[in-house]
Amino acid sequence: MKRLLSLALALLMLLCVAACAKDPDEPADPAASGTSGGNTDTAEIYPELSLPDMDFGGQEFRILALGAETYTTELWCSEEDAAAGNDVDQEVYNRAMKIAEDYGAIIEITSAATRDEIDMWMNVNSLSASPADTYHLVANHGRYVAKYVVNSLTGDWNRLYYVDLNAEWWSQDAREQWTAPSGSIYMMMGDISYGSVGQAIGLFFNKKILRDSEMEYPYQMVRDGTWTFEAFCTYVADAAASLNGDGTGSIDSDSFGYVTGKSRGPQNILNSVGEHWVTIDNGNYSLLSQNTGNVSDAFDDYFELIYESEGCICLNDNATPSPKMLAALNENRAAFIDDRIAFSAELNSLGADFGVVPYPKYDSNVDGYRTFVNAAANTFCVPNVVTADEETADFASVVIEAMAYYGGRDILPTYYETLLTYRSQTDVESIEMVGIIRDGLTFDLAYYHDLNGLCDIGSKIAEKNGNSNFVTEYQQRISGANAQLDIWLNLP
Question: Fewer beta carbons within 10 Å, N or C terminal of the chain?
Answer without folding.
Answer: N
